[in-house]
Amino acid sequence: MHEVVFVRIYIKEGDKDQGHDLMREVFKLLHDQHKVHGVTVFRGIAGFGSHGVHFADDLFRVNVQLPLVIEFFDEPAVIDALFPSILRMVSGDHIVRWKAECLADFGTK
Length: 109
What we know:
Largest sheet: 4 strands, antiparallel
Number of helices: 2
CATH class: Alpha Beta
Shape: globular
């Protein structure tokens, strides 16, 4: 088994980072700059945050901002190196992380 850190980021469609699509910017950071092992983006059909604002898929709404969850994992050193950049893009109260075990070694990237 191999120790990893697993991270989950909660955002919504339409969120921006310096005028750019936040999900795409986070994805580019993880993929292009840090070569993170294992990244998935999920689109939710409904959700609400700490302010209680409800977001849901609705055929009658033109501008739907559904919840997005970005999940990824890698070795602790990789996660620690990229985390300051993530925190500049996403509020810390929208991020959770925990230690986990991968059943196999990553090998070379």
